[in-house]
């Protein structure tokens, strides 16, 4: 087997999991609640994950010396997501700052303008990003 010099294969960071003893103590409900339930078709869910990985990659950290607002803006939970199927296997994924996110923090406020991705779910490419 020949290896290309200087070529390093790396894996994307994986989500953190609770330690085995904590996981063993967790109990799922017998039936999942329907209040607040959101059912996403597979292609929509995959398009959201695909666009989110470009928008805020898993494991990315804010720059050193970031303001509290910048730290808040680097967290995925600071954004609401809207996904809309389009023509030709395109899904539009919009990330907009949550109205209650990052308020009253040092630094400029988060923009009210959403960032919209056009994701081709047939070829799994980002066609365009509207900022």
Structural class: alpha+beta
Helix content: 10-25%
* Percent strand: 15-25%
Order of helices and strands: HHHEEEE
Q: What is the gyration radius calculated from CA atoms?
A: 19 Å
Give the uncertain stretches in residue-range form. 1-7
Tally of helical runs: 3
Which of globular, elongated, flat, extended, rod-shaped describes the shape?
A: globular
> How many extended strands?
4
Average residue-wise pLDDT: 87
Word description of this protein:
10% of the residues are buried. This protein has helices at 20-25, 42-55, 68-73; strands at residues 79-85, 90-97, 115-120, 125-130. The chain has a 4-stranded antiparallel beta sheet with strand order 1-2-3-4, covered by helices on one side. It contains 3 helices and 4 strands.
How is this structure best summarized?
The protein is an alpha+beta fold and 131 residues long.
Defining traits:
131 residues; alpha+beta; 3 helices; 4 strands; disordered N terminus
